[in-house]
Amino acid sequence: MSYTPVLLDGKALSKEIEESLKKRVANIIRQTGVVPVLATVLVGNDPSSEVYVKMKGNACERVGMKSLRIHLPEETTTAQLLATIDQLNNDKAVCGILLQHPVPSHINERACFDRITADKDVDGVTCNGFGRMAMNEPAFGSATPAGIIKLIKHYNLPVEGKHAVVVGRSPILGKPVAMMLLNENATVTICHSKTECLAEIVKRADIVVGAVGKPEFIKADWIKDNAIVIDAGYHAGGIGDIEINEVKDRTLAYTPVPGGVGPMTIATLIMQNVESAEMQLLRRAMYQSDTEKETEEITEAPALL
Ligand code: NAP
After folding, report:
1. pLDDT at 265 > cutoff 80
2. What are phi and psi of 97, to 5 degrees?
């Protein structure tokens, strides 16, 4: 039987998400008088990171939020970066903090990620956030994996009971996407640079996630017919981590590169900043109006007696 593979259009879905976020941001501003802020922190001069941070800041502004763009020099120390994060943690208008990975190697990146308070960890990078997500408790998921899961759910693809093979185990991508797929009841295998017989393992996958960071590392002939193929990689020239063009015609569904996982990462980050703003700003406004009402009731009470 012939079928048409589903192109998982992250670009189109991310546009839909942005449209819905514009309304939610307008509502926050109407109810609180505060424009929510996403703070982005970039350390050093990595050209790709500069582009990613700019794209995230622009997306934030497109939906009506402010982006506070902090660019620190290469020689920034861990103590200085921690102090910057502390300031942002204490700034009430800042609803989310994005610390762009990677920071220069002399900085303790893990300590800096973990300094971000849980309610502002909209990029899902803290150990605490990862642990809560893994335990299926409310938490902001790491943006790229959470974007992948949104894309899979949007297209109603079968995950429960399926064998998912994730190639890569980084803290921001491979590990969290494996946990998220497990939470969706997939049977998950995580592969990495020490995995033996990688091709044979990938050949058994109903769902393949490429998160290796090497151009077209996962070969088309490792992938069985009718698999769902998710390519999280991005390299110069619009190439991913999987030989996607060679395999896409015999998949059940696949992500294009570009236009698949990349736009979903940004949309997810922005959505999580809006959720954070709703939790922090709207809740504070409601609390204040309740307190004002109680104060009015107390001051009015004697007159009622
Ligand atoms: P990373 O931190 O470099 O991790 C790469 C992973 O691949 C590691 O776990 C590594 O294993 C594994 N690996 C390396 N060589 C391997 C081999 N020969 N066989 C099997 N596994 C191997 O990369 P990352 O940050 O997760 O990023 C992965 C890719 O996703 C990159 O292409 C990156 O550009 C892309 N990315 C895209 C977005 C987006 O928004 N679209 C966001 C983040 C990342 P070990 O742990 O054993 O070293």
Report:
1. yes
2. -125, 125
Quick one: which atom of ligand 1 is closest to the CA of 240?
32
Record the pTM.
Answer: 0.93
CATH of domain 143-260: 3.40.50.720
Region(s) of the chain under CATH 3.40.50.720: 143-260
Distance between Cα 174 and ligand 1 center (Å): 7
Please give all residues whose beta carbon lies within 6 A of any atom in ligand 1, as ranges: 144, 167-170, 172-174, 191-195, 198, 211-214, 232-234, 241, 261-262, 265
Residue 49: pLDDT over 60: yes
Residue 56 falls in the annotated catalytic set: yes
**Which contacts of 238-241 are long-range, i.e. CB under 8 A and separated by 24 or more positions?**
239/215, 240/210, 240/215, 240/216, 241/167, 241/168, 241/210, 241/211, 241/212, 241/213, 241/214, 241/215, 241/216, 241/217
What distance in angstroms lies between residue 284's CA and the mean position of ligand 1's atoms? 40
Q: What tokens were used for 120?
A: 């502002």
pLDDT of residue 297 exceeding 90: no
Domain with CATH 3.40.50.10860 in the chain: 33-118
pLDDT of amino acid 301: 44
Assigned superfamily of 33-118: Leucine Dehydrogenase, chain A, domain 1 (3.40.50.10860)
Residue 123 has pLDDT above 80, yes or no: yes
Shortest-distance Cα residue to atom 12 of ligand 1 = 168
- pLDDT band at 293; cut points 50, 70, 90: low
Among 48, 105, 192, which is best to mutate for testing ligand 1, by the most ligand atoms less than 8 A from CB? Answer: 192
